Amino acid sequence: MKKWIYYIALFFVCTGCDMTLLPETHITEEDLVENLVDIEKCFMSAYIMDDAITNKINCDWGLADDIMPMFENDWGGVFFYLQDAREMYKSQWVQYLYAGFYSSIAICNETLYQLELCPAKDSAQWSQLKGEALALRAYDHFSLVNYFGRPYYDHPETNLGIVLKNEFSLKEASRSTVQVVYDSVLSDLNRAYPLLNSDAEAPARFSKDAVTALLCRVYLFMNKWDKVIAEANKLIGKYDLPSKPADQFTVINGEGEIFTLDFSYNKYGFFSYLEGYVATWLVDAYQEGDPRTYNIIPGEDWVYIDGVLNFIPNGKNELYKLGKTYKALRIAEVYLNRAEAYCELGEDLLAREDLKAVVGNYGGDVSYIDKLSGEALMNEILMERAREFVCEGYRALDLLRKGLPVERYYTEEDPDTEEPQQIISIDDFTRILPIPHQECYLNTLIEQNPGYPRDTKL
Q1: Where are the domains of the chain?
Q2: How many whole angstroms separate alpha carbon 132 and alpha carbon 188?
Q3: What is the model's pTM?
Q4: For residue range 26-60, what is the model confidence (pLDDT) as tens digits?
């Protein structure tokens, strides 16, 4: 048992360099762990994904239109704004997103391997652990494929996705297609669901409801509208929207949470300080008094005047969305998923009711929604998603999966322009991330995304 713990620790030390090519941590039969408690303790490290989530958030706003970089000091965001392919290729944001999720996948795979060797297969604990490992592996693969592969509607059977890791292997590997990755994600989730038998640790660990919410999201990305509705129906009515929405990110296990990643071990939580400004168009899209704006405050620049430091308003808006947990799946998303599905199916009345449930929960006027239909209704649903999930790592993927351009209404000097200053088409290669520099060096079989360099030297 000590050998496994040592190797898991070694894995986290090495993961920034090894990417999907893992260090030699595989457990042989002489190291067999018969105690499910010990297996569970090791598996829990698969949920430690603060690097993966933090950098997912960074990459998402770098690819989107809702957050403008601090041009004076945030070169990570500036490189994305400039669509600098070489710098994006070497970006630590991209590297840590990639390595963080693959770290979790590796531990899930090792857990599944150990469980098959463990003699206690007839126990509820064994089933629960296997279900969690399958579900979390699906979450990780799904998170990766949508940043490194083209959207599902765009020829998933031929477009490359990611390296699919469904078993332990030290061998180099090529990328699977987007379709194959999605098939694997659905397979893992459908296998996980009947195995999960406890929600005692929910929402901090996967449960049946968490699998249902993730299936609802996956089907949304696949444009499987009837299935989105079917999965959403299992959850809506079971979970309440938060009664104190302004506090939902400052508490652990609050209302409306279905699956949460607990980063309370990290004193900075999952959000600390956004090195960027909320685009003015998004700030203006909130109704007055919306509690979601309480974390958005006017920005200031440090300016020395006659040797004295002054803080001068700069017309920009900073976001301090602090929290010890990342609300990975919550009921507000499920409502908006179902609203979008209803709208796509022409069921505008039902779509409006779901949209009003979310908007109304924040004390907003919902009467305007009754006047919306068709494209206007869909645009408002997407706008509500932008408001609801600001700086949580959703906006870029929403634009991508809907086939919409990125339109940036800001420049370095002006946070609020009348006309878009950048329009990035849906086919632009910078809409998806490059395979990181380190992975290209380590894995000679991996193919780079078009438009990006592939340097095999560190």
Answers
A1: 1-198+394-458
A2: 10
A3: 0.92
A4: 555 445 456 898 999 999 999 999 899 999 999 99
